[in-house]
Design a protein that fits this description.
Helix content: 25-40%
CATH architecture of the largest domain: 3-Layer(aba) Sandwich
Strand order of the largest sheet: 3-2-1-4-5-10-11
Largest sheet: 7 strands, mixed
Shape: elongated
Number of domains: 2
Radius of gyration: 22 Å
Length: 397
């Protein structure tokens, strides 16, 4: 099938989402069946509004430079395609003779790609739709990890490592510190902080995941135990942690276009803020909380090299497969026993609008720390962390 190709980036960015875009453009240029490659400006919203740009006219240096450029180069949105949009979307696809459609994104984006591919198939319009994974949340089914997660995980681990040294040395001023990560329903990023921990008193001391219901009594008991033993407490929490009845600890009631609860700044409150208030009210301690929001999603200075290359390869493979007549799949990363990654595929309908949680085997029995087995998963993704020294504190005689 000869025709034009369209690519869209949707949802929140990652540091390497443009590497996937670079891979898609690079491979499209090589494929005889693809004449022009278009980009949907502002994600799915651009498709609905027929706001397309011609990527065929970009120079080689720009396409190559995308591999190391943060954020979403095409512009993104969280527009949710409705079934009522589909006839109009099909008209636009026909208007521009688009026969290949590539969506780079997370759960909701994979749902949109699946909807478009399925509708075109039902209407007898030949379109090959493929998904390319992206999300720092690492919560997509079918892939060992998602492009963008290794870099964001390294950002978190470095922040906890370096911020933990600060918290240790400032414990006579601030008795605790709380670091909140993004991740609505899955705690992969919060769990990544575990990579910074080597000894019992090394931060983090408490990790709170959305997968484990928050129990205030158990939390305070652990807090007091750590404070007594280490002199300060480092807490990592996922933004979406909830009480046992499902109520967000953040107390947020704001939702986005996909009916997802908004956390952090978007929700007007945060889990870290509420935890800080609880601790201050109970102990009258002084402490701080940090909510970096989207910073781990665009941290080009901390990009993990293999994260860039994997994102690029997944984009290339999505195009190659589509041009071989494959459709309705997402390209994925498959890990062998050692960190030997190959590319696979997974059905879009099994990825769409679903969330892959942190497995129970990776979580410590108390529910507030990671199990040692998690190191085998996370360490190859983020690479080696810096080694810092500590004074011996030998008293003067």
């Amino acid at each position: 099938m000869k025709g034009n190709a369209l690519v869209a980036q949707a949802g929140g960015p990652t540091t390497v989402i443009n590497a996937s875009l670079s891979g898609i453009i690079s491979q499209c240029i090589k494929e005889p069946s693809i004449k022009n490659i278009y980009g949907s400006h502002w994600g799915m919203l651009g498709l609905v509004k027929d706001d397309l740009i011609d990527l065929t006219l970009e120079d080689t240096a720009t396409i190559e430079g995308l591999k190391r450029t943060p954020s979403s180069a095409l512009g993104s949105s969280r527009y949710k395609l409705q079934q009522t949009d589909m006839p109009h979307v099909l008209e636009i696809l026909k208007k521009h003779n688009i026969r290949y459609f590539f969506g780079i994104g997370g759960n909701d984006t994979m749902l949109n790609v699946y909807q478009i591919e399925k509708y075109c198939r039902e209407q007898g319009y030949e379109l090959y739709g493929m998904g390319c994974p992206k999300t720092v949340d690492n919560d997509l089914f079918g892939t060992d990890h998602t492009p963008g997660f290794p870099t964001a995980a390294r950002y978190v681990a470095l922040s906890i490592l370096q911020g933990g040294i600060l918290a240790r040395d400032m414990q006579k001023v601030d008795q605790f510190v709380i670091y909140q990560t993004i991740g609505r329903d899955a705690g992969w990023l919060a769990a990544a902080a575990f990579a910074a921990k080597k000894t019992e008193c090394d931060p983090p001391h408490i990790i709170l995941l959305p997968e484990v219901p928050f129990n205030a009594d158990k939390f305070f008991a652990k807090f007091e135990e750590v404070y007594k033993h280490c002199g300060f407490v480092s807490i990592i929490c996922g933004e979406g942690i909830v009480y046992e009845d499902g109520t967000p600890v953040s107390a947020s009631k704001v939702t986005d276009n996909f009916a997802n609860v908004e956390f952090g700044a978007m929700g007007g409150t945060s889990a870290a803020m509420m935890l800080h208030r609880m601790i201050c009210n109970k102990y009258d301690y002084r402490g701080e909380f940090q909510v970096p929001e989207s910073l781990p999603m665009c941290s080009a200075d901390r990009a993990v090299p293999h994260d860039i290359e994997e994102a690029f390869a997944l984009g290339k493979e999505a195009v190659a497969l589509a041009c071989q007549g494959t459709s309705g799949l997402m390209t994925t990363l498959v890990r062998k026993q050692s960190y030997d990654i190959s590319i696979g595929t997974f059905p879009l309908d099994q990825v769409a609008a679903k969330t892959k949680p942190v497995p129970a085997e990776y979580i410590a029995k108390n529910g507030m720390m990671m199990a040692e087995k998690f190191r085998e998963y996370i360490n190859p993704l983020i690479g080696d962390l810096p080694e810092y020294v500590r004074l011996k504190f030998i008293p003067v005689k």
